[in-house]
Amino acid sequence: MNPVNYLYLAALLFTIGASGVLLRRNAIVVFMSVELMLNAANLALVAFSRLHGNLDGQIIAFFTMVVAAAEVVVGLAIIVTIFRSRHSASVDDASLMKL
Amino acid sequence: MSTTTELTLRAQEMVPAPDIEYGQLAPVLIVIGAAVVGVLFEAFLPRRARYAAQALLAGLALASAFAAVVGLAATGRATTEAGLVAMGALAVDGPALFLQGVILLVSLVAVLTFAERRLDPRAHGRHVDSFAAEGAAVPGGEGEKAAVRAGFTTTEVYPLLLFAVGGMLVFPAANDLLTLFIALEVFSLPLYVLCALARRKRLMSQEAALKYFLLGAFSSAFLLFGIALMYGYAGSVKYAEIASVVADTNRGTTEALAGTTGNDVLLLVGGALLVMGLLFKVGAVPFHMWTPDVYQGAPTPVTGFMAAATKVAAFGALLRLLYVVLPGLTWDWRPVMWGVAIVSMLVGAVIAITQTDVKRLLAYSSIAHAGFILAGVIAATPSGISSVLFYLAAYSFVTLGAFAVVTLVRDAGGEATHLSKWAGLGRRSPLVAAVFAIFLLAFAGIPMTSGFAGKFAVFKAAAEGGAGALVVVGVIASAIAAFFYIRVIVLMFFSEPKVEGPSVAVPSPLTTTAIAVGVAVTLVLGVAPQYFLDLASQAGVFVR
């Protein structure tokens, strides 16, 4: 199959993820959308790696997975703390500070 | 010969062991190593010994890393001996060493403000610092009360700070896109956690961390996708190779490269996403939305550290990206940066006028300053680089000092950050008000302060680089900004103090030293900037 198709898929996933971050209200779902964006980038990296015939892209994809895991650790810790103190994970409720 | 040895031999042929220049990597290695040791301290030292051990370890590590940077610079690594290390992953050159030195000094001063524990009233007979007794305990709940009673402190902040500094040291020196991304995450993740750890106003602090985390992760996803597209365009993540492909010297060497380099969309969108990710960290409009909330909610020592050091690291990476990777695209990125610089300066300055909270005011002021620094970046000349380096050094100490002063003005609820409470501060505590006035004047760019020397340098570079109109906007924005800085000074000195106004806490020598260093650097760089300007201009050459 033509690797370019995977790039279109990656762009589509990235856009879905970005829209999810902007439109969804639950912090966990927002965070999952961010993960979707990271995975879209991974798909693009691997597809380009295949296209160029070198391994750089696949190596970066491994690093991205590790970074995403680290981000989950920190992110879920913060979201769970917020949930425990407010009983809500909605990003709209987190509005103590305004202009 | 056995098969195992044969296999080992063959493996050695296939994968040559990388050549690592440990000496030139010493600053980064010292800081990261100390951070790991700090984590071990948390695991094995008894609670009462941790505070002193951690603070001392952090201070020593940063000081010795700074000594290592000075050593590298003294042996000519910043100028004649500049080169790439760790298989081309990192650059050791003038801008990298200069910014690493600034980051290390700034963090050393930040450790002093982190370690301060005389400001809050004693809790159960023990001195407490600005960080939560137990970050995981629910604010106001039983767990928190028990933790405070037991005298817990979050000494994990020191290893977190060191990890963040380690990432920041790598960030401006990163010489391929993978290293750039990893460094970004290594310094961002500890900062998200640090933001959530305030002792007072914990809900606000946690909210700041949530916002910073979600927006930070969002922006790093954009950066990563930009890296993917850039890699797709150039077939490599090394800065020099991308630059040569962009500059058209290396196209069509392979069939795949001939296909992807024919597609400018990859290059333009990839470059835009990369720059976007960096502008987010810098806090330039339109990627500034997180700045006021995070600056306000985070514990003030963390805000000071973050505001100063993150900006230095992120501008370093932005400079290297634009000057080393994308010089072939100068005509494409310059108009965009013009726009970003102009709106940053104006939006930062205008919205700051309406602020009623000191920390938010400083946040908007930092947005305006990001615009001023971008004016120097836009120059695209060697003097542009050196002026940005100088500005960053000057600005970071002013910021750190200003936030250190904010920690001193307190009332029953902790820090009194509402501006109305600062009225008449000059009558009550002339010294603190005068010091804060010096920092505000430096932000405003009044002569005899470092802010003036820095602004003069970047505007001069911008004008010489053909961005005259930008300089005009910059001067107008400075005038608007001067209005609200002066307004705070007038409020402090020429209005009656309120009866139940805040009191100024008497700090320990730690915060006093931090503020004194801030004032000293502000005045020295303002009165006699020439030596440091020369230093910055010697350091202003990127290795390729």
TrEMBL record, chain A:
One GO cellular component term noted in the UniProt record for this chain: NADH dehydrogenase complex
Keywords, sorted A to Z: Cell membrane, Membrane, NAD, Quinone, Translocase, Transmembrane, Transmembrane helix, Transport
Matching InterPro entries: NADH_UbQ_OxRdtase_chain4L/K, NUOK/Mnh_C1-like
Top-level enzyme category: translocase
EC number: 7.1.1.-
Topology with respect to the bilayer: Multi-pass membrane protein
Transmembrane annotation, as ranges: 6-23, 28-48, 60-83
GO molecular function, one term: quinone binding
Database matches in Pfam families: Oxidored_q2 (PF00420)
Gene3D superfamilies (UniProt xref): 1.10.287.3510
GO biological process: ATP synthesis coupled electron transport
Catalytic activity from the UniProt record: a quinone + NADH + 5 H(+)(in) = a quinol + NAD(+) + 4 H(+)(out)
Localization per record: Cell membrane; Membrane
Main location: membrane
Subunit structure of this chain's protein: NDH-1 is composed of 14 different subunits. Subunits NuoA, H, J, K, L, M, N constitute the membrane sector of the complex.
Function: NDH-1 shuttles electrons from NADH, via FMN and iron-sulfur (Fe-S) centers, to quinones in the respiratory chain. The immediate electron acceptor for the enzyme in this species is believed to be a menaquinone. Couples the redox reaction to proton translocation (for every two electrons transferred, four hydrogen ions are translocated across the cytoplasmic membrane), and thus conserves the redox energy in a proton gradient.
Family designation: Belongs to the complex I subunit 4L family.
Name the UniProt record assigns to this protein: NADH-quinone oxidoreductase subunit K
Native source species: Streptomyces radiopugnans
Automatic annotation (TrEMBL), chain B:
Keyword Transmembrane tagged: yes
The protein's Enzyme Commission number: 7.1.1.-
Alphabetically ordered keywords of this record: Cell membrane, Membrane, NAD, Quinone, Translocase, Transmembrane, Transmembrane helix, Transport
A GO molecular-function descriptor: NADH dehydrogenase (ubiquinone) activity
Protein's UniProt keywords contain Nucleotide-binding: no
Bilayer disposition of the protein: Multi-pass membrane protein
GO biological process: ATP synthesis coupled electron transport
Catalytic activity entry: a quinone + NADH + 5 H(+)(in) = a quinol + NAD(+) + 4 H(+)(out)
InterPro entries hit by this protein: NADH-Q_OxRdtase_suN/2, ND/Mrp_TM
Pfam family, one: Proton_antipo_M
Subcellular location: Cell membrane; Endomembrane system; Membrane
Recorded family membership: Belongs to the complex I subunit 2 family.
Record-linked PANTHER family: NADH DEHYDROGENASE
HAMAP family, alphabetized: NDH1_NuoN_1
Subunit annotation: NDH-1 is composed of 14 different subunits. Subunits NuoA, H, J, K, L, M, N constitute the membrane sector of the complex.
Protein name according to UniProt: NADH-quinone oxidoreductase subunit N
The organism's taxonomic lineage, starting at the top: Bacteria, Bacillati, Actinomycetota, Actinomycetes, Kitasatosporales
